[in-house]
C-alpha cells in the first residue's frame, strides 16, 4: 500500500516537473504547455501505454492534465468502434463532458462569489 502512494507521488510529481520545466526553461506559455501535455497524454494513450501507467501509478497518472488526453482518445476509440467516424467526435465529448461541465459550473460560481483583483 505504501508503494502505491510512493509511485503515485513520483509519477505525478514527474509530470508536474515536466510542465514546470516547459514554463521555465522552454519559456512556453501556460496554454502551450497544457496543450502539449494533453497531446502527449493522448499519444501515449494511442499507443496503449497510458492504461499501464494508470495501473502502475494510480492517481499519479489520473490527476495530471495528461489524463485528459487519455480520456479524449479512450472515448474516441470506444465510440469509433460502435458508430464509425462520427463516433470519434461524439466519443471525445461524451466521456469528458462531466469534467468540462464541472469546470464551467465552478468557474461561474467562483465568479459570482468572488471579485477579481485588478
TrEMBL record:
InterPro entries: Spore_V_AE, SpoVA
Keywords noted in UniProt: Membrane, Transmembrane, Transmembrane helix
Protein name: Stage V sporulation protein AE
One Pfam family hit: SpoVAC_SpoVAEB
Lineage: Bacteria, Bacillati, Bacillota, Bacilli, Bacillales
Residue ranges of the TM segments: 6-26, 33-50, 85-114
Domain of life: Bacteria
Amino acid at each position: 500500500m505504501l508503494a502505491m502512494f510512493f509511485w503515485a507521488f513520483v509519477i505525478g510529481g514527474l509530470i508536474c516537473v515536466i510542465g514546470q520545466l516547459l514554463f521555465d526553461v522552454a519559456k512556453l506559455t501556460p496554454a502551450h504547455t497544457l496543450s502539449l501535455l494533453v497531446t502527449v497524454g493522448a499519444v501515449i494513450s494511442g499507443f496503449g501505454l497510458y492504461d499501464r501507467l494508470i495501473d502502475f501509478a494510480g492517481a499519479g497518472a489520473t490527476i495530471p492534465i495528461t489524463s485528459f488526453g487519455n480520456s479524449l482518445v479512450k472515448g474516441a476509440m470506444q465510440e469509433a468502434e460502435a458508430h464509425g467516424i462520427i463516433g470519434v467526435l461524439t466519443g471525445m465529448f461524451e466521456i469528458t463532458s462531466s469534467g468540462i461541465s464541472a469546470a464551467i459550473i465552478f468557474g461561474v460560481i467562483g465568479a459570482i462569489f468572488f471579485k477579481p483583483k485588478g
